[in-house]
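Re: that backbone. Tokens:
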């Protein structure tokens, strides 16, 4: 039997829609404003969350819906569908439409770095390169959502087409000391005492006697 039973693990109510209906809902959302920046934000938000910012209802994409609805009712009852998505990758340039808390790593986990070609390409117009695989842009794991979904930050200005750009501890330290910690100080001052004062102090605390690093995270 084909079923429209909601997946109880999803954090929001949802309706199953076809590809056509999903794209229609996306286009309708963009028609609500003529501001290009707002359109980019709405498109990114809907693309990554499958819902409108003002609505809790997810538009769950059913890849079989179009062909299923074309069948006679008698044939529909004989069908059973299983879907298995290995990964979903979203690329954003300025705003991250997070709908949940994020666990931020003070020391990035090496295994979280995106290094394998995932066939997703972007243009780095500021430095004159086009069609660059996102795995080739220096990046590391910034944090996770629900310990399931990874958020990586990438640094296009560090891109080297020769592929020999190395991320060092100094890069990690600069990012935490000059970006993460000041952001926490500005926006989460009440929790500042729970965060390491510097990257260097965190590495001293997190390193065991054998030299292994414990990668802890803080929730924001």
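Recovered sequence:
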């Amino acid at each position: 039997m084909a079923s429209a039973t909601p997946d109880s693990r999803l954090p929001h109510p949802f309706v199953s829609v076809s590809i056509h209906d999903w794209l229609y809902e996306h286009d309708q959302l963009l028609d609500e404003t003529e501001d290009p920046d707002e359109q980019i934000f709405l498109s990114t938000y809907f693309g990554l969350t499958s819902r409108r910012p003002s609505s809790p209802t997810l538009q769950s994409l059913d890849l079989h819906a179009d062909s299923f609805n074309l069948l006679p009712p008698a044939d529909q009852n004989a069908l059973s569908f299983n879907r298995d998505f290995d990964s979903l990758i979203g690329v954003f340039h300025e705003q991250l439409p997070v709908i949940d808390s994020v666990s931020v790593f003070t020391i990035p986990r090496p295994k979280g770095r995106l290094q394998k070609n995932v066939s997703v390409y972007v243009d780095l117009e500021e430095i004159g390169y086009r069609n660059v695989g996102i795995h080739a842009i220096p990046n590391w794991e910034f944090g996770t959502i629900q310990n399931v979904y990874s958020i990586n930050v990438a640094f296009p200005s560090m891109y080297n087409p020769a592929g020999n750009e190395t991320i060092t501890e100094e890069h990690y330290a600069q990012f935490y000391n000059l970006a993460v910690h000041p952001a926490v100080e500005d926006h989460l001052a009440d929790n500042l005492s729970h965060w390491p004062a510097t990257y260097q102090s965190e590495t001293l605390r997190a390193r065991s006697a054998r030299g292994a690093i414990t990668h802890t995270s803080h929730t924001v």
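DSSP finds six helices and eight strands in the chain. The radius of gyration is 21 Å.
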